[in-house]
Amino acid sequence: MNSMVEKNAPNIGQEDLQQMNETARLVLSLLGEKDSRLREHSERVANTAANFAEGGGVLRGDDLHHLYLAGLLHDTGYISAPAEVRASIQAPSEEALVWVKRHPVVGVNILSNYQRFEALLESIRHHHEAFDGSGYPDGKKGAEIPLGARILHLADHYDKLTSVGGAGKGLSREEALAEMHQSAGQEFDPELIMKFVAYMEAESGARQDFLAKKETALIKQYFAGILQKFSAGKVVPPAMPQVVFELRSVIKRHDSSVKDLADVLEKDPVLSLRLISVAKSPIYKGYGEIKSVQAAIPRLGFKETLSIVVAITNKSLYETKHPQHRVLLDRMWVHSLAVAFASKLIGQSLLLDDPENLFLMGLTHDVGKVILLRAFAEIPQGKSLNYDMIVSAIQDTHQSIGALLVKRWGFGEEFSRVIALHEGSNFTQDTESAILVVHLANLLARKMGFSFFEWDSKNPAELPSAVLLGISAEVIAKVEAKVKEIIKDVAHLF
Fold this sequence. Notes:
Elements: H1 14-34, H2 36-55, H3 62-73, H4 83-87, H5 94-111, H6 121-125, H7 147-162, H8 173-181, H9 190-202, H10 210-231, H11 242-252, H12 258-265, H13 269-279, H14 293-300, H15 302-314, H16 323-349, H17 355-364, H18 367-377, H19 387-408, H20 413-421, H21 433-447, H22 464-469, H23 473-490
Helix pairs in contact: 1-2, 1-3, 2-3, 2-7, 3-7, 7-8, 8-9, 10-19, 11-12, 11-15, 12-14, 13-14, 13-15, 14-15, 15-17, 16-17, 16-18, 16-21, 16-23, 18-19, 19-20, 20-21
């Protein structure tokens, strides 16, 4: 039998897989309540078996997922075993040995009540059969033993040899594989054991979480497709609102007045109200009540008015109807705003040219992530996906899309270079100051908690970008404190 799935078994859909995963995890948690070591052992066996079967080219498709689930559930029969039996699996008494040899059958009896597990039952029943026929419960031998059961037997035995505590012997990988190799043709399928040994010797990630790995690969595949469509012009990127272009045009004129800017902004009542709200916030301290756009502009200044308008209009990019992605986009928005203000404050502290330009660079540094996530939200995945995996996949692909997008928005080559290079670490004296500023601001936002990623507890003044900029720890601390205050005061106003 060369497959662990019956010939007539139907292909399983994504929804069925998810339900099977959830049910298997529920059963495994029940086993864990009885003995946490058995639950941990089952998880290791499932990952080792599935990763080997995939990496060694032994199984593919639904068979792999069935094998993984069978690995999780292979010791289900011990749920009903007395505690003393579970405690003596390593060296069972005569009475306990009866239970040990019955547990595959008991497990199948329990799991057969769930129809979706039908394709797993043979592998679970026969995972202790030996290749020479000396195993249990049915004394099957050779190719009579389902392939999935032969793989589980390898993974199960390997874990018992290498794990510490309980039934484990605590052997090294090399010692365990050498011992298992001696049983080729007796305990284990001689062809499979050769592949297993070769895989385990070469592959350090055999116990990597199989489902997490598959989910990560699926997400990366989605994003690669989105990137390809975007580059080919098949994904239409969002346009910068016309009001931004008009405002930039007015500001470039030397004879522009407050009224000229106000005339442009007042075409959009919602934008005007938001601009007034920001101008009235505590961070833009001033005398007198702000009740109009014409009063707000002098308090902010022309360039800062443009920066705030870009931020207000950009906020719409971070909106989606998908609840899960809405959480991600909300966090991305706060992160981008924190980086924008941190970039501006760093620029002001170092007396760099045009801090407002640095604000806009910080605001748009992660815009590629937003575009990817919005496109990703339109793809029906059929299940909830792990936040960390989504963010990790976006992290790998966002810079090229972001750089292309800001070019289309007319922000120029300097913006594109900042987006393309702000994640780097190989900075030199020749690196543009804007790239260093946004890099430092990005990491400071992480340190302040405005990020998906954990801060690594380094001294920010020792970061390559900080050293090259010549910014002191004291100045960095002041920037952090000010950004926290700003985000608290204005993040909700955009």
